[in-house]
Q: What sequence folds into this?
């Protein structure tokens, strides 16, 4: 019995020892396998690349950009050794992160090199599957980066944005483009149009402007947020208008034409003389600018349907109406259309003007002045200019130049209708405001003061009750100040923009001296 129990104990002990030994062996095997897997994972390029990105993020948090860039490059090198699409996209995304960091640091020379590489790789991915939206967007985005960092002295013949935009646009014949791609496409076409315009390639610029605006219009109904889509459409149309304006103005300058703006250089015109009509520029370019402006207005109208009380939208609407009106007045636009645009701008500015809002008060005065000048060309602007003069009285002292301009334009309109007594009183208001402004601003206000002085002196010598001695004194004083102290860029000289003013003063002085 005792022997049997002893054998049982020995058996149990042996079993326990065997179990312990097996457990230890299994645990040791598992640990060994884990270590092998850990070592294999650590040596895995994908893991190493992810670790490099983590180190780059840590370096950025500690403000070590060069270390971050080195880790970005390490991750890129690892991903580029791998097979498959995912590593290529990871490498591209990391290059883009490095590019943005270099741009933030202002290291544009290095950023340009990275941008070129991103562009080349994005183009290769796009060409492999040109109808895939992810590749289209990456290609367009890379093109914009290259364009923004391009050295102006070494611009490629065809901008990167034009190359990418035309390639992506061509795929629309195969499969419809998504809204986000259409948005990027519009921006690229717009950028390319601007660059062609700057290079005087007018026809190419116009063709690209048409594509920019048409794609922006296509994108609008496809976006989830209608107001955001309309805002993008408005922005594209507004910028297209500005580029078309630049093309038109440059063409006019080449042909030696000098269009007259709303003010039409009227400051130096003698009230005894007839107004000189504005010269007509190239009608097609101005019509193009006007069409893009109307497109922006249409988008704004729809935006206001979603946000009828949005003050910022109304401000942009008023500014756009005034801009279109000014261009119409300058370029011989249709009378009724220009009048309607000015009236709309004034109506909106009146509605926006609140008590104490200095900026909107200033905007209202300027809109009224421009409208009044336009109507004066038809002999009907005096009441509008009088309203502008009344509103100008509420302006701050720092806006005395605006007040002086309004009073001066009213004086001119009155003198054009032979109302010289009333014109003289407003000319004096303009002269006093300009004098105070020049005293506060120094040389900055000299030109405005001299214009006001010329106008006042001219009206002082007019009947009834001519005051030629005072007129001569004011004219001589203005000429002396322009020659010796005015807005001359070189001490003792006079700038070219002052020369017509000085000639007008000389003619008036000679006339006043000749009259006994």
A:
């Amino acid at each position: 019995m005792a022997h049997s129990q002893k054998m049982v104990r020995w058996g149990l002990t042996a079993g326990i020892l065997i179990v312990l030994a097996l457990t230890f062996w299994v645990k040791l095997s598992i640990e060994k396998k884990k270590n092998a897997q850990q070592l294999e994972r650590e040596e895995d390029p994908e893991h190493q690349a992810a670790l490099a990105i983590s180190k780059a993020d840590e370096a950025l948090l500690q403000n070590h950009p060069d270390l971050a860039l080195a880790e970005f490059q390490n991750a890129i090198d690892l991903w580029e050794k791998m097979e498959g699409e995912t590593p290529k996209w990871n490498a591209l995304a990391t290059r883009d992160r490095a590019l943005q960091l270099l741009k933030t640091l202002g290291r544009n020379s290095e950023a340009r090199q990275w941008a070129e590489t991103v562009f080349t790789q994005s183009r290769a991915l796009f060409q492999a599957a040109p109808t895939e939206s992810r590749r289209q967007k990456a290609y367009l985005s890379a093109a914009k980066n290259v364009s923004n960092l391009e050295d102006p002295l070494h611009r490629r013949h065809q901008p990167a944005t034009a190359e990418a935009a035309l390639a992506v646009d061509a795929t629309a014949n195969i499969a419809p483009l998504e809204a986000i791609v259409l948005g990027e496409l519009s921006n690229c076409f717009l950028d390319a149009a601007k660059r062609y315009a700057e290079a005087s390639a007018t026809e190419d610029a116009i063709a690209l402007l048409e594509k920019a605006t048409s794609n922006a219009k296509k994108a609008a109904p496809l976006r989830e947020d209608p107001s955001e889509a309309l805002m993008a459409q408005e922005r594209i149309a507004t910028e297209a208008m500005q580029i078309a304006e630049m093309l038109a103005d440059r063409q006019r300058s080449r042909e030696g034409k000098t269009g007259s703006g709303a003010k039409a250089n009227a400051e130096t015109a003698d009230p005894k003389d007839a107004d000189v009509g504005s010269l007509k520029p190239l009608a097609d370019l101005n019509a193009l600018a006007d069409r893009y402006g109307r497109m922006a207005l249409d988008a704004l109208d729809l935006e206001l349907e979603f946000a009828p009380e949005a003050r910022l939208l109304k401000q942009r609407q008023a500014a756009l109406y005034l801009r279109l009106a000014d261009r119409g007045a300058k370029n011989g636009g249709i009378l009724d259309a220009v009048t309607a645009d000015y009236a709309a701008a004034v109506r909106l500015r009146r509605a926006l003007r609140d008590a104490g809002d200095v900026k909107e008060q200033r905007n209202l005065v300027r809109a009224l002045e421009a409208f009044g000048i336009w109507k004066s060309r038809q002999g009907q602007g005096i009441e509008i200019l009088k309203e502008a003069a009344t509103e100008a009285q509420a302006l701050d002292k720092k806006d005395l130049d605006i007040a002086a301009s309004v009073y001066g334009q009213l004086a001119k309109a009155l003198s054009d209708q032979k109302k010289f007594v009333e014109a003289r009183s407003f000319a004096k208001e303009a002269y006093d405001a300009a004098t105070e402004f020049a005293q506060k601003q120094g040389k900055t206000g000299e030109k405005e003061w001299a214009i006001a002085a010329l106008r006042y002196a001219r009206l002082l010598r007019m009947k009834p009750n001519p005051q030629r001695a005072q007129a001569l004194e004011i004219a001589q004083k203005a000429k002396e100040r322009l020659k010796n102290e005015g807005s001359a860029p070189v001490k003792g000289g006079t700038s070219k923009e002052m020369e017509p003013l000085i000639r007008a003063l000389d003619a008036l002085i000679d006339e006043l001296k000749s009259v006994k």
Summary: The chain is about 75% helix and 0% strand.
